[in-house]
């Protein structure tokens, strides 16, 4: 059996995080739309697969997010995924804890407990990567905590210093029509984005939101951002 994907003309998300090439910089709105696409894909896998089966991906990471035409993001690489029937109430367990270290759910690593929440944790890591513009295993994070970006981001969030970690490229976006600095994230959209990303990387699985919750919150962020942008232009 094989999986066939359409050509991802813009490669994978990890190619653009931490890149020093200004020509590959993703705008804040593009990043939000990529996050929404991932959330929509996860929501489908977790709730809407045929024959009443759900899929736990187990390896959500920026390298497995393919970017196609118009920067539409799609989840790829189902080599580690597991089916979970909707009528199967008990939790799944595995002795083979697999995935990429910096994206792995702490509870999953300790107990082998397989729930959809492990994908949400990994997605939270990706959300922080998208916002900070660096990969989860970037030396700047690993030097602070060997577990990578999620642990560092969680600590900075609780200490209210997380704004210092936001990618300066999106904070300095210029509107080409007016040459003014106002296309980056506004405070309302950034606040909601940070809160949902923080909830995704909660230590325990039961404290994390569902993919549907994340999707709804990210859509709010995009709506707030777009509304602010058009309001600015009208003024």
From TrEMBL:
One of its GO terms (cellular component) is plasma membrane. It catalyses: L-seryl-[protein] + ATP = O-phospho-L-seryl-[protein] + ADP + H(+); L-threonyl-[protein] + ATP = O-phospho-L-threonyl-[protein] + ADP + H(+). The keyword ATP-binding applies. InterPro entries: ANXUR1/2-like (IPR045272), Kinase-like_dom_sf (IPR011009), Prot_kinase_dom (IPR000719), Ser/Thr_kinase_AS (IPR008271). Its EC number is 2.7.11.1. Residues 1-222 form the Protein kinase domain. Keywords: ATP-binding, Kinase, Nucleotide-binding, Serine/threonine-protein kinase, Transferase. It comes from the Eukaryota. Gene3D superfamilies: Transferase(Phosphotransferase) domain 1. It is an enzyme of class 2 (transferase). PROSITE patterns: PROTEIN_KINASE_DOM, PROTEIN_KINASE_ST. GO terms for molecular function: ATP binding; protein kinase activity; protein serine/threonine kinase activity; transmembrane receptor protein tyrosine kinase activity. The keyword Lyase does not apply. PANTHER family: OS07G0166700 PROTEIN, VASCULAR ENDOTHELIAL GROWTH FACTOR RECEPTOR 2 (VEGFR2)-RELATED. This is non-specific serine/threonine protein kinase. It comes from Helianthus annuus.
């Amino acid at each position: 059996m094989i999986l066939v994907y359409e050509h991802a003309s813009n490669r994978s998300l990890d190619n653009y995080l931490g890149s020093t090439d200004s020509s590959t910089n993703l705008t804040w709105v593009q990043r939000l739309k990529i996050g929404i696409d991932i959330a929509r894909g996860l929501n489908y896998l977790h709730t809407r697969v045929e024959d009443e089966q759900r899929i736990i991906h187990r390896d959500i990471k920026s390298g497995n997010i393919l970017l196609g035409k118009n920067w539409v993001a799609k989840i790829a690489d189902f080599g580690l995924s597991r089916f979970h029937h909707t009528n199967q109430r008990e939790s799944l367990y595995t002795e083979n804890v697999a995935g990429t270290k910096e994206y792995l759910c702490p509870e999953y690593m300790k107990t082998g407990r397989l729930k959809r929440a492990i994908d949400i944790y990994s997605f939270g890591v990706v959300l922080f990567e998208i916002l900070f513009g660096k990969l989860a295993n970037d030396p700047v994070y690993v030097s602070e905590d060997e577990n990578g970006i999620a642990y560092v981001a969680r600590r900075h969030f609780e200490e209210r210093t997380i704004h210092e970690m936001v990618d300066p490229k999106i904070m300095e976006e210029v509107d080409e029509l007016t040459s003014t600095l106002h296309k980056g994230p506004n405070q309302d959209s950034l606040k909601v984005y940070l809160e949902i990303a923080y909830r995704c990387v909660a230590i325990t699985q039961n404290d994390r939101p569902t993919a549907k919750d994340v999707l709804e919150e990210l859509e709010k962020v995009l709506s707030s951002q777009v509304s602010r942008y058009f309001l600015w232009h009208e003024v």
